[in-house]
Amino acid sequence: MRPAHTAASRGGEARAPEEPGGAGDEGVIDETGEDRGPRGRMLAGLRFTSLRLRLVLVFGLVALTAAVSASGIAYWLNREAVLTRTQDAALSDFHQELQSHAAALPPHPSQAELRDAATGMADSSQHYAVVLLGESEEGHRVAGNSDLDTFTVADVPRALRDAVGEEQKGASGDPAAYHLFWQRTVEDGTPYLIGGARVAGGGPTGYLKKSLQAEADDLNSLAWSLGIATTLALIGAALLAHAAATTVLKPVHRLGIAARRLGEGKLHTRLRVSGTDELAELSRTFNRTAAALEKQVDAMSDREEASRRFVADMSHELRTPLTAITAVTEVLEEELDAETGSVDPMIEPAVRLVIGETRRLNTLVENLMEVTRFDAGTARLVLDTVDIADQITACIDARAWLDAVELDAERGIMAHVDPRRLDVILANLIGNALKHGGSPVRVSVRVEPPTVDEEAGDRLVIRVRDHGPGIPEEVLPHVFDRFYKASASRPRSDGSGLGLSIAVENAHIHGGDISAANSPEGGAVFTLRLPMDGGAVEAEGDEDTGDDGGAHPATPGGEGGERR
Known about the structure:
- The chain is α+β, with helices and mostly antiparallel strands.
- It is 47% helix and 13% strand.
- The protein has eleven helices and twelve strands.
- It has helices at 29-32, 37-45, 51-101, 111-122, 158-165, 213-263, 278-338, 348-376, 388-398, 419-436, 499-509; strands at 129-135, 141-145, 181-187, 190-198, 205-211, 384-387, 405-408, 414-417, 441-448, 459-465, 513-518, 524-531.
- The strands form three sheets. The protein has a five-stranded antiparallel beta sheet with strand order 2-1-5-4-3. The protein has a five-stranded mixed beta sheet with strand order 7-9-10-12-11. Strands 6-8 form a two-stranded antiparallel ribbon.
């Protein structure tokens, strides 16, 4: 409820403070891209961590904030304008009607006179109810209502009645003793404007009550319209954000596919570049990097191929003189074994050294040729169904290891393998265990079912365990590396340094693998795992036994690389 700035003659410019509950509270690479299907693309685009979703959310929040702010300001401005216009018109009309009807009443009007005057005032175009209060000659309060059912003095808030009845000290030059006051209230969900003023000079006091439901309905319609507009703006912003995110993320997606393909070894992958923006420059940089990488990899491949060809050619060239040297050393060895005295005892140690080194050189050349076949991808399997226990026994017996090896294998375990390559694997593993771990060496054979992650059938598991000091932890990751030596102070060993490497390659060509570890009870354990059915690799005919032939049997000593 607020006091007016002027006397009753200037009614309508006054504002009373609003009470709680009043109307004031009403208020290139798309050609090489991967197609994951519509569902996959949709799920990828809707991941919470995706950049697309974050862009859409940011755009949506910005649009929602802007739309809500604009709608709120527009609603508040329109609300104030509508209510102010309505209440100013009603108060101004009430003021005029009060002056024309109530001022003409006698000093002590009767109830009938007040009722007639109130009815005349209520017939105005503003459609409000009026109640007039006067004082009879006996000093009693007399009230006259335009509509007793809709508006009585009891409907006027107490604070408003006190403000209207209080005599004001007017400013200089303002003779009015009473001002016009108004207040907005809500009754049963309907907003009303209630105003009051007293006629200057001791006349009656008048109050009006005007419904603001029409204005409230208009404001509710405006709020719904603004809400709909805000929703449409939010949807439009989300669509625009999605379109913008697609424009930005499409090159990024192509770049990701290209990088993944590059990592898979497809070095010819390139991006199709269009435009001059930052993403286009990023695509150009990727293409330049991929071209440089392809060039370097091609050069390295050429050098590696040349090196592999050199080793293969060298091995082939060494076989001819080695054949002659081997024949001579065999003759010398026969002479030494015959003890005929034809060999001078002074040079006998040198002759035996030559014989041993010739055998070692022959083994090294054969291993190098085998390695070149693996590197060139020309090694093939000749599969056969064999009894594993018999195969291991034959390997041990051929190398005179029966007294140093304990075999734990049931007969009747049949597997589809390449017998010659399996013999190479076993000879290298058992020979390595005897050489570096010491006897007794225990060889166990088991058949294990496939794990949950494996789709293949049963697997053959052969474990070779020695009783030596074990393998140092820092050496374990390198035991299958070619020419790896555990200590730089031991540059020379009895083996070629290729045995375990050849063994693991033979396991791989079967579709299996070899692992190395230390046993908790002491000693090293090598575990060979092979598919029982020969794996996914099938035989492609008999292998050549010449320069491009299959695996060669290991020498009696095995070919384990240094591991201690």
